[in-house]
Amino acid sequence: MPTTVWLEVQSPSGPTNFLNGLKATDVTSLPKFVHINEEGPREGFQFEKGIIPTARKIELIDALSKTGLRHIQIVSFVNPKLVPGMADAEQVVEGITLQPGVAYAGLWLNDKGFERALATRRLHIRGSISLNASEKFLKLNQNRTPERQLAGQRAIAEMYRQKGIEIERGGIAAAFGCNFEGDVPVQRVLGLVQQLLDIAGEQGASLKRISLADTMAWATPLSIKRLVGAVQDRFAGHHLSLHLHDTRGMGLANAYAGLEMGVSYFDSSVAGLGGCPFAGHTGAAGNVCTEDLVFMCDEMGIETGVDLEALIACARLAEDVVGHPLPGSVMKGGSLRRLREKLAAVA
Amino acid sequence: MPTTVWLEVQSPSGPTNFLNGLKATDVTSLPKFVHINEEGPREGFQFEKGIIPTARKIELIDALSKTGLRHIQIVSFVNPKLVPGMADAEQVVEGITLQPGVAYAGLWLNDKGFERALATRRLHIRGSISLNASEKFLKLNQNRTPERQLAGQRAIAEMYRQKGIEIERGGIAAAFGCNFEGDVPVQRVLGLVQQLLDIAGEQGASLKRISLADTMAWATPLSIKRLVGAVQDRFAGHHLSLHLHDTRGMGLANAYAGLEMGVSYFDSSVAGLGGCPFAGHTGAAGNVCTEDLVFMCDEMGIETGVDLEALIACARLAEDVVGHPLPGSVMKGGSLRRLREKLAAVA
After folding, report:
1. How do residues B240-253 score in pLDDT, each as one tens digit?
2. Of A290, B36, B259, B345, which sees the most CB atoms within 10 A?
């Protein structure tokens, strides 16, 4: 049954009285600052077919760490037989020049990977637990039941507590749909988020962020709003983050929908590097592109702390490092700030 | 000074109570039906460097006309010396198989082009007048003043009346910004729309649609909402249409912002064909991609009347016709409907 809600909307002042009431809400609900978690190096290098020289990985990471990005996920500690592109994870971590104020992170899927990350002594180690919302994906790709998945994450949470590692983030993979299962119901995701909060709670932790991942690019702006709204309603007080893929071209539209819902944490990849090698796509595009996202934020008055021109240079470097074109748009079309500066210089 | 507005928001019923008030407005303001004006053949063939054989142009247009698209702009009648790719405009129009219910349109910029279009006797002839919002672009590219531009459009409107052609559409080019001038103020666009309405009015016509074109990809979702809202406020009763370019990756996010404002007319290009050859871009991406737009609408429950799978086949044909990859995403990532059907067949 529809319910009626009364809202007080502040119509922003401005040079034009452009708002017809309903739309004022969109404008005023945009966040003032967006936190970007750069995942290009990890997602990208893992996804590329050829082996990329360690020195070139380090070159890109070092360049990224000078753009103003504060969180960069640089490697994953996974089985080198399964993911040969990440066999040099330790060398990459060892080789980078640590930039003050930048948190360099790694990804691990089990205790062995976690121990490897810990042993580098150079990474920003925070606990993360996650559940995949697709039962078919669990079964077909990992031969696991939801119960076993849950037990596995419980064991990881227990491990974090024993090591004194803060459990910061809870993630739901395939939160919007899955190529092996189809649409994922909102109620299932809500149940899984509750399970993550329970697992963290059992270890005396409370999750700072809940991450919703559109792992296989099933989301649209409308389903972003639906799921984000549902999670915000039920789990108020937790920040949400979005992990978006651009496989069906919805990446930035979905990010915008998230911004309108007040989401202020996004994972993204410079130049649009990456893509899930296990998702069964023929034309898997990567994550939503960092510099395109930063451009959108910049132009809408949302701060990111990132220097767009420096990031565009990194995107071009990323293309050079992987040796083929990458999907990012702004690195090809150019920023508007740069154009405005040129026009001002001429005038 | 900010003003306070009280809104009554209907929270739609649904399987989940996902809405937290503010966001209900977004969902409920989406249009039920979106009218797509396919411009791929005209924008694309004009933009491509090599000459595309006439038969292949016809092949793509004939395929597009069987997808459910109701408006297809297929050629432009311009100076063949300046745009050699359109020298065969008459042959293309002559060669296509007219599909009932499909309006095939052409573009012209002056009376000579208009006479050529009329002479084909196969096109859907409607009058359109337009003004470019960038005074610098007018000066540098066309050596015209705003006054001369206005006089030119007035003459065209007069010509339409004399020929008994309905003036259906008024367009503003570079409505969001220009590479030669920078940002375009909302007030200037409002003034130009008024001029278009006046010109039409002088001929006893009233414009059915006002088209706002982001000719050089300066728009963001926020500026779309601002300008669309301003035009809606000042010129209620006229449908708006959006012509969007994807040069900086904002195409679909901008389309979504338009949808949220209730815009239900969009120009787009199959596979993302096209781009303005005079816009001074180094990496000019084309128009927003038709099948990606249709996918977004489909998945959000907005009807377009277009068969997405047939359109995806056209996008792949377009790549074959131009002989290189095109930017569309869904033709690579695949539709979700197709995936759902496969999953249902297995289950």
Report:
1. 999 999 999 999 99
2. A290
- Contact (CB<8Å) A332/B246: no
Question: What is the Cα gyration radius of chain B?
Answer: 20
Please report the DSSP string for A114-175 in residue order: HHHHHHHS-S---EEEEEES-HHHHHHHH---HHHHHHHHHHHHHHHHHHT--EEEEEEET-
Mark yes or no for CB contact B22/A13 under 8 Å.
no
Q: Are strands A182-183 and A177-178 parallel, antiparallel or unpaired?
A: antiparallel
Distance (Å) of CA A31 to CA A214, A268, B10, B105: 21, 17, 24, 43
Give the pair of three-digit tokens for residue A266.
């996004």
Q: How many CB atoms lie within 10 A of CB A209?
A: 17
Q: What is the spatial distance between Cα B249 and Cα A313, in angstroms, rounded to a whole number? A: 17
Which residue among A3, A30, A227 sits closest to B11, beta carbon to beta carbon? A3
Domain boundaries, chain B: 29-346
Residue B206: band (very low, low, confident or very high) from pLDDT cuts 50, 70, 90: very high
Which residue, among B325, B317, B332, has the nearest Cα to B55 in the 3D structure? B317
Contact between A203 and A161 under an 8 Å Cβ cutoff? The reply is yes
What interhelical angle do B54-64 and B308-322 show, nearest 10?
170
CB–CB contact B296 A180 (8 Å): no
Considering only the beta carbons, identify the residue of A222, A247, A253 that sits closest to B253.
Answer: A253
pTM for the full predicted model: 0.91
- pLDDT attached to residue A265: 98
B48/A187 Cα distance (integer angstroms):
48
Note the ipTM here. 0.90
List Cβ neighbours of A172 (8 Å cut-off, separation of 6 or more): A130, A131, A132, A133, A189, A192, A193, A196, A210, A211, A212, A213
Contacts of A251 (CB under 8 A, 6+ apart): A217, A244, A245, A272, A285, A287, A288, A289, A292
Q: Cβ neighbours of residue A297 under 8 Å, at least 6 residues apart? A: A34, A259, A303, A304
The CATH label, of 3.20.20.80, 3.20.20.70, 3.40.109.10, 2.120.10.30, for the domain at A29-346 is 3.20.20.70
Residue labelled with tokens 């701060």: A303
| Per-chain mean pLDDT for chain B | 88
Which pLDDT does position A29 carry in this prediction? Answer: 80
A82: closest CA of chain B, how far (Å): 24
Q: Is-contact A55 A288, C-beta < 8 A?
A: no
Long-range contacts made by residues B298-301, C-beta under 8 angstroms, separation at least 24? B298/B335, B298/B337, B299/A220, B299/A222, B299/A223, B299/B336, B300/A220, B300/A221, B300/A222, B300/A223, B300/B30, B300/B259, B301/A222, B301/B30
Reply yes or no on whether the pLDDT at A25 is more than 60: no
pLDDT of amino acid A48: 81
* Pick from A29, A280, A152: nearest CA to B333: A280
Which amino acid belongs to residue A344?
A: A
Secondary structure (3-state) at B270:
helix
